[in-house]
């Protein structure tokens, strides 16, 4: 089969600092919200880091990055998405000078990537707000966070701007409305946060993101700045107009983030929502001006789709990536209840391209599954045909979207090496091509083993997608 993927297409994998690095108290790092979330978003936070929090050691990427990047290079990665831990650079978040030891660590990571010709794709803030900012300022509800983030982003652009081309400002920025502590460092318990506060926090993040774009233009003119949104297409549960309207409203609650990033102002439907809720946000003229600094590209995660219904008797909240939704009776689900829908990825790609006309980057996609490490011909491996099938089917749909004329820059699978899950903080929810010997109880050698999907993905990359099976 001839490949629909352009020769410039970037292939790789993605991780986040808090889910891989470990070394939570080394190199001058301060605590982040993740260090007190031993159960992810499904469980309560703790007052201090506790030994059962797998993220404190994670998979020890902090010490093993060279070995791991060499494995990515062996698969032929042309890009690797990782995040910088804010609390390594500004341990408390509100200091005026960055922590040199933290910057130096990422210099070493970049050296390694450069050695292998892998293009870095850096997330500036991936669910890692410094804990001090959460506890002292109530996170992004406080306008001062804009200034702290600005200083942080500026230090990164100054230090790495000549080495890193692709940047993402906030991971899954729309998740703020659903997971306020993890996503926005908002310390107030979720059910006590006033809606107004939440929307104000959203506004602060959007302004901070746009400011980062403005700063990058001055400090690192070659940088390409992208926003990053959690995508979750919805289907009407029935063909009734009322269900179609539900879909529109669900879409709006997510698309508003991309609309602001791509168009530079709040859309009418969002202003209407605020009006009807009687919410008046504190938006200054300077904020409005800042928001006009639109992004160069739009990146997103895609795992699943949902259904939407106006019928309150059928409104059940299914499992899913942070927000979940009404289960779709036509789709199968993963072991964690996330519904599998490759066609949804083609729909999202078309919708985003039609709407924003900005290049798109798929920066998360993958299947979280339990794996069995077994021995085949004397070599330890995982025969993960289920993961291969999931990724193959999604990539086939990316190929379809490319043929539809959508501009897609690249694709990074989520958790290219097994990492700690964001929602449940388990290691047994594995996404990787590389198995890491660590268990949910913290035992394990941390040794790495190639799964069957390792060779499969290497083949996909080598053939630029021609080896995919429609
Ligand atoms: C996204 C996050 C990631 C990641 C992924 C998979 O929401 O950006 O950090 O972990 O989902 O989710 P989980 O780890 O809960 O399976």
Structure, explained:
- This protein is an alpha/beta fold and 470 residues long.
- The protein has one domain (10-234, 253-307, 335-462): TIM Barrel (Alpha-Beta Barrel), CATH 3.20.20.80.
- Helix content is 38%, strand content 14%.
- The strands form 4 sheets. An 8-stranded parallel β-barrel has the order 1-2-3-4-5-7-9-12, surrounded by 5 helices. A two-stranded parallel ribbon has the order 6-8. Strands 10-11 form a two-stranded antiparallel sheet.
- A hairpin with a 2-residue loop joins strand 10 (374-376) and strand 11 (379-381).
- The protein is globular, with a radius of gyration of 21 Å.
- Bound molecules: 6-O-phosphono-beta-D-galactopyranose.
- 6-O-phosphono-beta-D-galactopyranose binds at residues 16, 171-172, 301, 321-322, 364, 368, 414, 421-423, 429.
């Amino acid at each position: 089969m001839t490949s629909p993927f352009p020769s410039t297409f970037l292939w790789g994998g993605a991780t986040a600092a808090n889910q891989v690095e470990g070394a939570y108290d080394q190199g001058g790092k301060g605590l982040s919200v993740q260090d007190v979330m031993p159960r992810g978003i499904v469980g309560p936070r703790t007052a201090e880091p506790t030994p059962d929090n797998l993220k404190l050691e994670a998979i020890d990427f902090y010490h093993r990055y060279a070995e791991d990047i060499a494995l990515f290079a062996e698969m032929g990665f042309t890009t690797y998405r990782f995040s910088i831990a804010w609390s390594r650079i500004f341990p408390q978040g509100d200091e005026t000078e960055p922590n040199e030891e933290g910057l130096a660590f990422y210099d070493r990571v970049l050296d390694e990537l450069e050695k292998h010709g892998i293009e870095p794709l850096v997330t500036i803030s991936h669910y890692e707000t410094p804990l001090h900012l959460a506890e002292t300022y109530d996170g992004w509800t406080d306008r001062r966070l804009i200034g702290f983030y600005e200083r942080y982003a500026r230090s990164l652009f100054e230090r790495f701007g000549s080495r890193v081309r692709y940047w993402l400002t906030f991971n899954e920025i729309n998740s703020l409305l659903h997971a306020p502590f993890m996503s926005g460092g908002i310390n107030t318990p979720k059910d006590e946060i006033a809606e107004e506060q939440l929307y104000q926090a959203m506004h602060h993040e959007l302004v901070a993101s746009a400011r980062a774009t403005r700063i990058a233009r001055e400090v690192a003119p070659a940088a390409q700045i992208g926003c990053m949104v959690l995508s979750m297409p919805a289907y009407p549960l029935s063909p009734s107009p009322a269900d179609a309207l539900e879909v529109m409203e669900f879409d709006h609650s997510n698309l508003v983030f991309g609309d602001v990033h791509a168009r530079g102002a709040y859309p009418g439907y969002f202003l209407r929502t605020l009006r009807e809720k009687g919410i008046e946000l504190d938006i200054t003229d300077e904020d409005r001006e800042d928001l006009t600094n639109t992004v160069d590209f739009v990146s997103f995660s895609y795992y699943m789709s949902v259904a939407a219904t106006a019928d309150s008797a059928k409104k059940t909240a299914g499992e899913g990536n942070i927000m979940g939704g009404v289960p779709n009776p036509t789709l199968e689900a993963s072991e964690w209840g996330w519904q599998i829908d490759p066609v949804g990825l083609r729909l999202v790609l078309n919708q985003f391209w039609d709407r924003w006309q900005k290049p798109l980057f798929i920066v998360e996609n993958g299947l979280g599954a339990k794996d069995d490490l077994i021995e085949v011909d004397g070599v330890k491996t995982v025969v993960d045909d289920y993961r291969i099938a999931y990724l193959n089917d999604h990539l086939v749909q990316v190929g379809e979207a490319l043929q539809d004329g959508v501009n897609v820059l690249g694709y990074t699978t989520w958790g290219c090496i097994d990492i700690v899950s964001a929602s449940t903080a388990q290691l047994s929810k594995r996404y990787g091509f590389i198995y890491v010997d660590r268990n949910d109880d913290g035992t394990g050698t941390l040794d790495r083993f190639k799964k069957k999907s390792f060779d499969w993905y290497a083949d996909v990359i080598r053939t630029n997608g021609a080896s995919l099976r429609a």
